[in-house]
């Protein structure tokens, strides 16, 4: 009798709540090296930058406490602050959704079993390991208005509609869109995540859909996309956070121009620190950016209720 009770106890399946608790515990264990590094090496710079945001500091003399003056000047008396913030919000609002759409489409196209598919997947991912400086220089030549390859390809279109060639990154009206289009070249990074999630979808679901007479498009809408929402949501959050830090491509390709059209927030922060030697003001900008990113990310996390996590039960 005692032996039977022991056997039943050993064969008892763990509860969903217990599994989630164990998953969280393992998550903290695996993240602990990074968390320890953050607190040991990042706590002091973080706290010191907060202190500097309330000072006037030119990186030569000693910081002089001025209270909230840096924040007041930025928010009420700095046109470039709002211009750079608008440029950044514009970039995020277009680049993030567009990057998700392109990444999902690539994953759908590459989720087929044909000869040499591994080569195609590798080719689409390769741009992610290329230096962003080299990539920017390459796209400068491709988008060059006078002799760039893109305009050469589009020349019959220009002639047909009697149009002037597009100025791309040298045109203030479309310079931000040019940098956004260039950023799609690295969509292979998110594509890999989508592809992994897609291949984790049980084949039985598609077989059942075939029996019900569902076509390819219906299976994509009713099965594939809903079960891909965890990876889509992850890339959405990471895209938001990364989008507010856009800097390198504008610094190399446009220098913030033309007419400050690609003068992003991080670029202005960089100029405050390096060109103006205004470390206090730059620190204030960094903290404002952190608050903006945090608020928008927290709002975006509310969309988590629409994400379907396969295997979870209420």
Task: Give a nutshell description of this structure.
The protein has helices spanning 2-11, 16-52, 69-76, 79-110, 117-125, 132-142, 149-160, 175-183, 188-198, 203-211, 216-227, 229-243, 248-253, 265-274, 279-301; strands spanning 55-56, 64-65. With 314 residues, it is mainly alpha-helical. α4 crosses α9 (188-198) and α9 (188-198) runs antiparallel to α12.
Structure in words:
- This protein is an all-alpha fold.
- It has one domain: MetI-like (MetI-like fold).
- Helix content is 68%, strand content 1%.
- It contains 15 helices and 2 strands.
- It has helices at 2-11, 16-52, 69-76, 79-110, 117-125, 132-142, 149-160, 175-183, 188-198, 203-211, 216-227, 229-243, 248-253, 265-274, 279-301; strands spanning 55-56, 64-65.
- A two-stranded antiparallel ribbon has the order 1-2.
- Strand 1 (55-56) and strand 2 (64-65) form a beta hairpin.
- Helix 4 packs antiparallel against helix 12.
- The longest helix is centred in the N-terminal third of the chain and has 37 residues, at 16-52.
- The chain is flat.
- The chain starts with a helix and ends in a 13-residue tail after the last helix.
- The mean pLDDT is 90.
Describe how the helices and strands are arranged.
Elements: H1 2-11, H2 16-52, E1 55-56, E2 64-65, H3 69-76, H4 79-110, H5 117-125, H6 132-142, H7 149-160, H8 175-183, H9 188-198, H10 203-211, H11 216-227, H12 229-243, H13 248-253, H14 265-274, H15 279-301
Helix pairs in contact: 4-8, 4-9, 4-12, 4-14, 9-12, 14-15
């Amino acid at each position: 009798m005692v032996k039977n009770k022991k056997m039943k106890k050993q064969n008892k399946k763990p509860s969903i709540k217990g599994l989630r608790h164990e998953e969280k515990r393992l998550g903290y264990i695996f993240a602990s090296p990074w968390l320890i590094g953050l607190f040991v090496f990042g706590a002091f710079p973080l706290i010191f930058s907060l202190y500097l945001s309330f000072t006037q500091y030119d990186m030569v003399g000693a910081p002089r406490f001025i209270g909230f003056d840096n924040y007041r000047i930025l928010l009420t008396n700095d046109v470039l602050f709002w211009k750079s913030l608008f440029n950044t919000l514009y970039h995020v609002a277009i680049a993030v959704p567009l990057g998700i759409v392109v990444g999902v489409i690539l994953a759908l196209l590459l989720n087929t079993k044909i000869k040499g598919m591994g080569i195609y997947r590798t080719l689409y991912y390769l741009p992610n390991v290329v230096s962003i400086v080299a990539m920017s220089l390459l796209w400068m030549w491709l988008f060059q208005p006078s002799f760039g390859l893109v305009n050469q390809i589009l020349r019959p279109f220009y002639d047909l509609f009697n149009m002037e060639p597009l100025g791309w990154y040298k045109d203030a009206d479309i310079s931000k869109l040019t940098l956004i289009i260039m950023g799609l070249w690295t969509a292979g990074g998110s594509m890999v995540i989508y592809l992994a999630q897609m291949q984790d979808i049980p084949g039985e679901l598609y077989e059942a859909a075939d029996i019900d007479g569902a076509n390819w498009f219906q299976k994509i809408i009713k099965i594939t996309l809903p079960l891909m929402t965890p990876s889509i949501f992850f890339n959405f959050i990471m895209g938001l956070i990364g989008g507010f830090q856009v800097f390198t491509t504008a610094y190399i390709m446009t220098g913030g121009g033309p007419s400050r059209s690609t003068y992003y927030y991080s670029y202005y922060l960089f100029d405050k620190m390096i060109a103006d030697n205004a470390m206090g003001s730059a620190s204030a900008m960094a903290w404002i950016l952190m608050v903006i990113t945090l608020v928008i990310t927290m709002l975006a996390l509310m969309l988590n209720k629409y994400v379907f996590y396969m295997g979870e039960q209420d």
